[in-house]
Amino acid sequence: MNQDYLWIEALKFNDQGLIPAIAQDAEDGTVLMMAWMNKESIQKTLETQEVHYWSRSRSELWHKGATSGHIQKLKSLYYDCDADTLLLKIEQIGNIACHTGARSCFFTEAKISYQ
Amino acid sequence: MNQDYLWIEALKFNDQGLIPAIAQDAEDGTVLMMAWMNKESIQKTLETQEVHYWSRSRSELWHKGATSGHIQKLKSLYYDCDADTLLLKIEQIGNIACHTGARSCFFTEAKISYQ
């Protein structure tokens, strides 16, 4: 393994070998989606600079946007203090991250107060 | 249950009864941390308007900031298109979300390109 990538070995994957990855617009900070990555998808993301997740429903590597064209170009990547969550700062091609056509998957606001 | 909170029943919790929750600064969009919630912690968060997570390491309700003073005031809450991730927009009291004293838990940038 390339020495630059030793940090991947330090990540804490869950018992399915996965780690949650938050995708955030690198420019304006909008949180676009959360999905899961495994080691292979992280490596593929770094090799291509395009975000690859692990699809839990299809059990396969998921090159985000490969069919829709809405790929995510990786700008920077952070991991958190206990190394069990990733934050991907990305450029969202087409400005649509969600399969519904919305810009962000978080388009539903919940009611949070009584009355 | 209060009718306003029926959306909680529609959330998809994992087989431990948990759902990931991303905390984002409501003002400037900084992603501060990711932790887990269960139904009880969501309800407690809504009742108090202060964020409560579920601590997986201690297996207990975790009133964020109860000891440090760095509580998180809930401003708004979103769930994603498949209702399995929460996005909490918060006011971070003390401007410190991380137990290390950092503002955000995502303070470690990884090297993402060869050379």
UniProtKB/TrEMBL annotation, chains A, B:
It is an enzyme of class 3 (hydrolase). Its cofactor is Mg(2+); Zn(2+). Catalyzes the hydrolysis of the adenine ring of phosphoribosyl-AMP. It is found in: Cytoplasm. Pfam families: PRA-CH. InterPro entries: PRA-CH, PRib_AMP_CycHydrolase_dom, PRib_AMP_CycHydrolase_sf. This is Phosphoribosyl-AMP cyclohydrolase. Its EC number is 3.5.4.19. The gene is hisI.
